[in-house]
Here is the input.
Amino acid sequence: MPVRPPSLRSIAAFEAAARHASFTKAAEELNLTPGAISHAIKALEHRLDQRLFDRKGRAVALTAAGLSLAVKVRLSLGLLADAFETTPWRALDRLVISTTGSIAQKLLIPGMASLHQSCPGVRLDLRTSDALANFDEGIDVAVRFGPGGWGGLQSRFLGKERLFPVVGPDYRGGEWPVSQADLAGHVLIHHPESSWRLWLDPAEPDPTQSADALHLDDAALVIEAAAAGQGIALARERLAADDLQSGRLVRILDRSVPAEYSYWAVWNASSPKLPLITAFVEAVGAMFSVELLSTTQ
Here is the structure.
């Protein structure tokens, strides 16, 4: 006789806990108690004779066995969902891509021709948001600047990033700072993902204590503000590369430092569009492998 599968409720509890890396968040999503989620997962672990999660206080993380099961469960649920799905965004000739506005503007849109070539006959639907991509709401693949390690998802490292100060070519008539201490007399443009603390030498005076500041929450706007002469920005090299090459931006001072985060492609490994996603990610990876001219300047 065929083996009877676990209840759909247990499977849903496991999938939600794996995706959120949290029993509490899984319980909120499924309108259950955390105890019910824990009980369902313990039943699965007993049935498989495998530990599916490492539990450290309130935090949980998939074990190797849990990760393997999560991929198979998502594939099965994806097939089940597709059997009942009729909405057009599920069409296999359309790829929905989530990214931030700065990555879209500075990296993906300039390379859109090569991205189209990687997926011939496929409509590329580019959506911008600073929030994490929700793969349950029609997103097929995301391109993000972050720490990596998104639980329950497949990811590919695309490239590192470096930070260095830049100004517009007409900024203060060319009277630009020549040392870290000189920055104190200027407006410093700040972005939360590219902190000046990463670049500043702690052995030298801290200019952020006395310099004027402009805080922006979009990395592309940081570049635009610097190009417009509004101050000195700590630019991300990949985002600023075209503007440095065209002369809209000028790099000042000599020091560059690694950024805290990197670029990643992220997707659901059980997506029915996996061949399209793979082709797209390969094309994006090729874009990030191109050597930047600004590294030699």
